[in-house]
Each structure stands twice: as C-alpha cells, then as structure tokens.
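Hi V.,

Quick status before I head out on leave. The structure for the redesign project is tokenized and pasted below; the design run finished overnight.
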C-alpha cells in the first residue's frame, strides 16, 4: 500500500510534447550536464551559439522531431528523432537525455528513465508509425545497454570512432515494430 506522499507509476503522467523556443535554454543546460556528456559522442560543453545553430537547423527539418519529456507536469528530458524516412520502409533514429541532476535530487532518475523510453518507443511506432527504430550507444555504457535490451533493442556490430579527441566504441541498436514490448 502507498503512503499518502507516494505516487504509483500509474498515477504519474508521462508526456512527450514538441519542443518550443521556450525550451531551448533548458535543453542546453541538460545536455551540458556532466552525466550526459560522459555518455554522449559529443562530450565537450556545447556553447550557446552551437546550440542555437542546432535548434535553427532541426526545428524546420521534416526528417527530425525534437520532443520534451514531461513527467508530472515538469519538463525533465529531451527525445530527438532524426533521419526519419517515410518512403518505403518507415525508419528513423533516436536519442534522448534527461535532466540528470534534477532527477537525481528528487530521486526520480530510474522512473523517469523508464518513462521516457516507454514514451519514445510508443511515439516512434504509434505516432510516427515507424517499422524500425535505430540508435547508438557507447560500448562502455553498460547500464544503457542493459536498459536497451529490456526494451528489446538488438545490438549491431560495434565500431571504433574518434569523437572530441577520444576513441570511443559505438554500438548501433535497432528495434523492429514486431519485436517491441507492448504495455
């Protein structure tokens, strides 16, 4: 039984909404958190100018979507879909990052992580009607790799890359519509 100050996962609200210009500063602050930079191909701190160029490029691009993950009426993450292809097999790639610092302070990291992944997969297959969802994970990010497997993503062949002056192992992942977990 829940205490009065607890919420069940069913009572929490999880929403993905389109990002707006009002979200740009929040997105940059989250992206630059050390926790997020450590598990990203781009590990340097992103400047305001670099972020503004990115925002300008993505907001009008039909092959991309930038969504804000809102949990209990509080924005706390970003989901990006890119390389969307709707002619022939419907495919796209995705990535996400959370407000790692804010969620950790509220002891909400794991529930938010599960929630954003569920919402993103549902959006990919039920909103964008993709046949396959692709992504990437760094080889040493074992926690994310385990979570991806929980959601039935399959890993491809790892490859070595040089990014921000460091050698990284990048592992492609994919999830076919027929293999996704249903709620």
């Amino acid at each position: 039984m829940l205490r009065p100050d607890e919420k069940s996962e069913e009572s929490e609200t999880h929403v993905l909404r389109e990002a707006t210009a009002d979200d740009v500063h929040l997105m940059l602050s989250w992206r630059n958190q050390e926790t997020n930079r450590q598990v990203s191909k781009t590990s340097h701190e992103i400047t305001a100018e670099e972020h503004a160029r990115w925002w300008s490029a993505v907001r009008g691009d039909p092959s991309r979507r930038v969504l804000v993950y809102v949990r209990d009426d509080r924005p706390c993450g970003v989901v990006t879909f890119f390389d969307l292809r709707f002619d022939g097999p419907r495919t796209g790639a995705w990535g996400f990052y959370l407000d790692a610092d804010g969620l950790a302070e509220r002891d909400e990291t794991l529930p938010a992580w599960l929630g954003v992944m569920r919402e993103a997969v549902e959006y990919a297959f039920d909103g964008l009607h993709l046949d396959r969802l692709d992504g990437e994970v760094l080889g040493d990010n074992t926690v994310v790799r385990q979570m991806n497997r929980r959601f039935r993503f399959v890993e491809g062949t790892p490859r070595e890359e040089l990014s921000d002056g460091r050698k990284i192992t990048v592992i492609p992942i994919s999830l076919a519509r027929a293999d996704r977990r249903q709620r």
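Above is the designed sequence. The radius of gyration is 16 Å.

G. will cover questions while I'm gone.

Best,
W.
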